[in-house]
Amino acid sequence: MKRCPHCGEPGLSWLHFSLATRHGPTACRVCRGLSYPGEALLVVASVVGSVLPIIALVGAIYMNSLWPLYIAGGLLLLYPVTVLALPAKKTTREASQASYRRWKIGVAVFILLVVIAGVCQSLGVG
Ligand SMILES: [Zn+2]
Predict the structure, then answer these.
(1) Predicted local confidence at residue 82, as pLDDT
(2) Which pLDDT score is estimated for 86?
(3) What is the pLDDT of residue 42?
(4) Residues 83, 42: contact at Cβ < 8 Å?
(5) pLDDT beneath 50: ranges in the chain
(6) Of 2, 5, 43, 82, whose CB count within 10 A is highest?
(7) Could you give the percent of the chain with pLDDT greater than 70?
(8) How far, in Å, is the centroid of ligand 1 from the Cα of 101?
């Protein structure tokens, strides 16, 4: 159990904490306070986690060897460890719901742009 930033008790499940985000925080079992892993490092970890497999795949093809894939796999195993090591950040239900709304708007805008790009391409524009 990880220590809760609200009450200081070890009330956060390791599994739930590692999956928690700003818009989907985990609740403390002792005080019901909400928290999630701090984000600065999480962004870095996510970028590395999404770029690394591509680099490994290109490296494996280029070097005609499986070693880049083994190394990338080993580094990806460090991801959950990194998340668990992050300090828990406090949040509230209102703040996490507001963040979730912003996240949904971001996803909607992204899908809209993809659809517009697809329509433009099929019409031969751009
Ligand atoms: Zn607590």
Answers:
(1) 74
(2) 78
(3) 65
(4) yes
(5) none
(6) 2
(7) 94
(8) 25
Q: How far apart are CA 35 and CA 5, in angstroms?
A: 7
Tell me the H-state helices in the chain: 14-19, 39-63, 67-85, 93-122
Q: What is the predicted pLDDT for the residue at 54?
A: 87
* Rounded CA separation 78/5 (Å): 24
Beta-carbon contacts of residue 68 (< 8 Å; ≥ 6 apart): 55, 56, 57, 59, 60
Tell me the CA–centroid distance for residue 45 and ligand 1, in Å: 26
CA 58 / ligand 1 centre spacing (Å): 45
Query: In one letter, which amino acid is 30?
Result: V
Residue 82 Cα to ligand 1 midpoint, Å, equals 22
State the Cα–Cα distance between residues 73 and 52, nearest whole angstrom: 9
**30-49 per-position pLDDT tens digit:** 999 999 987 666 677 677 77
